Amino acid sequence: MALDRRFVHVSRAAVALLLVLVAQVLVVITGSGAIQTAGAVPASCKRPANGFVPSRAEIPAIGRTVKVIQVKRTSSGQVGAGPVTQEGKWLMAMDPQTKPASRKGSVILSGHTWPDGSALGNAMLRDLHRGDGIVLTGSNGRRACYRITERTSYPVDEVPRNKAFRYWGPEQVVIVACSGKRLGPGNWTRRTIWYGVPVAPTPPPPAQPPAEEEPPSLLGGLLGGLLG
User: What DSSP letter does each residue of the chain carry, written as one string?
Assistant: First the structure.
């Protein structure tokens, strides 16, 4: 019976050690970029040298790639929105003020929210969170990748314009969607804004020089000669 208890104890210890080793392997693999979360940006994303006009937006967190259209500002200077149509509910509208990869200012995007929950804005409200990514793609394969660092909901009249819609400062992506309570067509009580920062591939670590062999100590050499 004592032998059986020792066997069970050793077996449990072996299983625990195996689980620890598996967890460590997963951490190493994940850190190297071989495994990514569903909403992460591609590890190979390289920033273009100059700003460009994107035609598509890939949002892994919602499992969709959508068309991007340029939308001018209103006569009062407000950020414009895409068409309120069946096609428009899955379009990503972009303000032309700042292009992706411009190195400064806000790249402003928006998506419609529909009361039946079937539009781009609804999908982002459900599934787009901090740590997720968005990839903007243009001609010649140019891509700008961003990682969401903040998601905040504001009352419609309290959106911080100097934070969200700036043309100065470090480049960021800003995605806007209506949220809160719907009071009527196009009239919602809140705005949810996602802020993101540019993502560039992590350079590989520098190669480590081979370790130099230490010369044998004097005592070791003497002993080796005597024993030889």
Answer: -HHHHHHHHHHHHHHHHHHHHHHHHHHHHHHHTSS--TTPPPTT----SS----SEEEEGGGTEEEEEEE-PPPTTS------SSTTGGGEEEE-TTS-TT-SBSEEEEEE---TTS-SHHHHHHHH--TT-EEEEE-GGG-EEEEEEEEEEEEETT---HHHHS-SSSB-EEEEEEEEEEEEETTEEEEEEEEEEEEE-PPPPPPPPPPPPPPPPPHHHHHHHHHH-
